[in-house]
Design brief:
CATH topology of the largest domain: MetI-like fold
Order of helices and strands: HHEEEEEEEEEHHHHHHHHHHHH
CATH class of the largest domain: Mainly Alpha
Number of domains: 3
Number of helices: 14
Helix content: 40-55%
Radius of gyration: 31 Å
Shape: elongated
CATH superfamily of the largest domain: MetI-like
Structural class: alpha+beta
Largest sheet: 5 strands, antiparallel
Number of strands: 9
Strand order of the largest sheet: 2-3-8-7-6
Length: 397
């Protein structure tokens, strides 16, 4: 009786658990990256993002006021102030006056700098530095504290990534370079695959079954295996065209550039696109197409006025896959967009460069990574309603 139509399967719970697990696996790192992009470097260093809503104990390096703010009280030169901004509630347990001993003194105890000044740090962050001689130095003395600090979120990370002069130009250029790669590499495969899918689905010609089998076989060709042969072929074609057209110097076609990366993405995106669209078009009502042919419509008119509008869910589902793949791609860009000047650097490569130059600035890396995935997230949520409809194309007759 379990196989009777309409009977609820006993494995429904397994499906629900699997779906929940997949959602969790996708949502957990994305949420963590989003939260980390608003945290400070000290908070990221002290614990995971799931602790961001709770007070945490941190080892901080702070500076007192500079010597220019010292005052003479009797025979002592004094500098007083607060280590933390007003309104921030902290509790200092230990502190130190040297980087070798960052927790020598308890809050309220009197310590001493190497230069001879005495200092007292209270639990709330207030301090008092005293010296019998005039305090020198253009920068304030460093004070190392171990304190329990409240949760803190800041927009400074995004300001540094998007508006800071040292990062803004690189990230902005990388953003537009990524769009330059992604948009043609998404639109062109859809356009080519739509024509091919219609021919394989509704046009009779010799060898059609063999072509469908070849498309399915190409789905399993690994990208890494074909990149170097593709690059060699592309360079050979470029050299041939330069010789044929007589182009030299600044006018010659470049072996590595946007054209190469477009062709690479198009080539590896076409098998999935043709397979997905062909399965969808085969499932469209035959009567509509036959009636159009009886009315005198050509194959091109049927394709443009009937097939394309009805195939929008399949087109959108592939567009999501292709856009996400090309936007997040690093390997193909490294092979076909090698540029020492940075003129064609995409966002994934820009983040790798940030990792090299700012290896300890995890807050900058988290923010840059979330900026990079913001556009794919918008595309996915805007078109996800078509995803399932497109993927299920041809599964039920």
């Amino acid at each position: 009786m379990d196989n009777i139509a309409g009977t609820k399967s006993s494995l429904t719970w397994a499906v629900h658990i699997s779906v929940a697990a997949l959602v969790f696996l996708w949502l957990f790192p994305t949420l963590g990256l989003f939260v980390s992009s608003f945290r400070t470097a000290d908070q990221i260093a002290t614990g995971g993002w799931w602790k961001s809503m709770f007070p945490s104990q941190q080892n901080l390096t702070l500076r007192a006021s500079p010597a220019s703010e010292q005052k003479l009280e009797g025979s002592l030169y004094v500098i007083e102030g607060e280590l933390f901004e007003e309104g921030i509630e902290v509790e200092i347990s230990r502190w130190g006056a040297s980087s070798q001993n960052i927790s020598t003194y308890a809050a309220g105890e009197v310590g001493e700098f190497r230069s001879g000044e005495t200092v007292t740090v209270q639990a709330n962050g207030s301090y008092r530095i005293e010296s019998e001689t005039e305090i020198s130095g253009s920068r304030g003395k460093r004070i190392f504290v171990t304190a329990i600090t409240p949760p803190e979120f800041t927009f400074e990370n995004y300001q540094n990534v998007l508006f800071d002069e040292s990062n803004r130009e690189g990230m902005a250029k990388a953003f537009f370079n990524t769009l330059t790669v992604t948009i043609p590499a998404t639109v062109l495969p859809i356009l080519i695959a739509a024509f091919a899918a219609y021919a394989l689905a509704w046009m009779d010609f010799p060898g059609r079954s063999l072509l469908i089998a070849a498309v399915v076989a190409l789905l399993v060709v690994p990208l890494q295996l074909a990149l170097i042969p593709l690059l060699s072929l592309h360079n050979d074609i470029t050299t041939f065209l330069n010789g044929l057209l007589g182009l030299e110097g600044a006018n010659e076609l470049k072996g590595k550039g946007y054209v190469g990366v477009w062709f690479a993405h198009i080539g590896f995106g076409l098998p999935l696109a043709i397979y997905l669209l062909r399965n969808y078009m085969v499932g469209l009502p035959r009567d509509i197409i036959e009636n159009a042919r009886v009315d005198g419509a050509t194959d091109f008119q049927i394709f443009v006025k009937i097939i394309l509008p009805l195939s929008f869910p399949a087109l959108a589902s592939f567009a999501i896959f292709q856009f996400l793949w090309t936007w997040n791609d690093l390997l193909v860009s490294l092979v076909f967009l090698i540029d020492s000047t940075g003129e064609t650097t995409v966002m994934t490569k820009q983040i790798v460069e940030l990792l090299g130059t700012r290896g300890g600035n995890w807050e900058i890396l988290a923010t840059s990574a979330f900026v990079s995935i913001a556009v794919p997230l918008l595309v996915f949520f805007a078109m996800q309603r078509y995803l399932v409809r497109g993927l299920l194309a041809g599964s039920v007759k």
